[in-house]
Here is the input.
Amino acid sequence: MTTADQTRIDRREFVAALVAAVPEDTLFVSGLGSPSYDLYAAGDRDRNFYLWGAMGGAVPVGLGLALAQPGVPVVVLTGDGEQLMGVGALASVGAAQPRNLSIVVLDNGHFGETGMQPSHASLGTDLAAVAQGFGITDSARIERQDEVVECARRVARRAGPTFTQALISTDEPPRVLPPRDGGFVKNRMRAALGFDSF
Amino acid sequence: MQTVEGQWQKDVFNVLKQGGIQQVAFVPDAGHAYAISAARSDPDIADIVLTTEEEGVGVVAGAWLGGQRAALLMQSSGVGNCVNLFSLLSSCSFPFLTLVTMRGEYAEFNPWQSPMGRRTPAVLELMGMNVHRVDRPDDVAEVLGAALDSTFLAGERNAVLLGQRLVGRKQWERK
Here is the structure.
């Protein structure tokens, strides 16, 4: 582990603190891989929708969800690799300006799921600057665990889309696997919002 | 001819509107221009411009998670961009409705449109979609309405292909 890693945020502590600090009715969408494990490890909730595939799809799902539920905070929690694959979706969020959508990228600068190859995020891409350039003006990069409090405040404020690039360490905590039955997870979130399966 | 073309385009939007569609995601396209413009000026419909069609698959799924009906408007070339994202629809049994204007077939001028256009129905079927095709203006409302019902009443995944003969020849020379 390098010195830089030691000073970076612990992903599990950060996600657990974020879930605890946002309003209780917040809807979470997590991108495939470690962000889904992190979200599940923080406590399974009916209002979590875990992606196990469809790489690049987390922000678009969050966008459609946020537009459908404007009175509820929606948080997309994903990694740098997944966000890079669907990076154009940040432009679509910038164009639509949903007030209640927050995107939190857990950025370890690597493709963790496939063997820790360096990602563009550690090879020159500044994701917070990209989001800013796409019109998500409330974009921030955070480097300390205690900054989770301000991140949660921005989620609760619902004052426009927000983007947070959280610099996490490359540690890989033990995997804890959320349900893989997509139909179940989908219907459970809809039921929590008062909707039938179809 | 102009009047007839205008009518089927209005039919598209009217069926979506009467079918309770509240989000329309799209990559701009001349064949969908009326529906996009009508969605933009309707306060009860969110219009979402995409950078690539695959985003639209996610948006439509997210809308359904949040209790709204949505539709994705795209061109046949965009279907190829969506393939992996279509897995989201079958993995979670999301209802899904897309309207696809066809290229690479009737009176096509640009051969680069043909590889994707010719394979569009097969790609959609491979990914678990019911594929409907419309070539006559008078059929648009009926077929789209049937696809919409199947989507939201039966929870199915439906694609309605608007044939290139229906959409009309593209004008290649600016006058």
